[in-house]
């Protein structure tokens, strides 16, 4: 595999996984809009950040074992689409779409693992 395309295939799921985690983490800012004081809202904010931290942990594990990222991100995309986004195709596309793309990229990276590490 060409060096440039190999690097893109190797790094794109990792970078996109971090970006998806930041995107999911932005929803935690909602904790500050409930009329509470800053210090009362901080615990809610931290609880709402848990999904973002889980995604970051998955990206970290997937840096070593790409198949984990592929299976986990695709599984999370399907789980969200089935459980949370019923009847809301826009929610499904906004949340499950990026998770599915990152999972597919991790699987693709895993399938070409030996070629990517050689380049």
Textual characterization of the structure:
The chain is mainly alpha-helical and 119 residues long. The chain has one domain. The protein is 82% helix and 0% strand. The chain is built from six helices and no strands. The protein has helices at 3-26, 38-48, 50-64, 66-83, 89-111, 113-118. Helix 1 (3-26) runs antiparallel to helix 3 (50-64). The longest helix is centred in the N-terminal third of the chain and has 24 residues, at 3-26. It is elongated, with a radius of gyration of 17 Å. The mean pLDDT is 87.
What is the helix/strand order? Answer: HHHHHH
Overall helicity:
over 70%
Distance between the termini: 7 Å
Biggest sheet layout: none
Structural class: mainly alpha
What is the count of distinct domains?
1
Poorly predicted ranges: none
Q: What integer value in Å does the Rg equal?
A: 17 Å
Strand content: under 5%
Assign an overall shape.
elongated
The total of helices stands at 6
Mean pLDDT: 87
- Count of individual beta strands: 0
Task: List the keywords.
single chain, 119 residues, mainly alpha, 0% strand, elongated
Topology:
Elements: H1 3-26, H2 38-48, H3 50-64, H4 66-83, H5 89-111, H6 113-118
Helix pairs in contact: 1-3, 1-5, 3-4, 4-5
Short description:
The chain is mainly alpha-helical and 119 residues long. Helices cover 82% and strands 0% of the residues. Helix 1 runs antiparallel to helix 3.
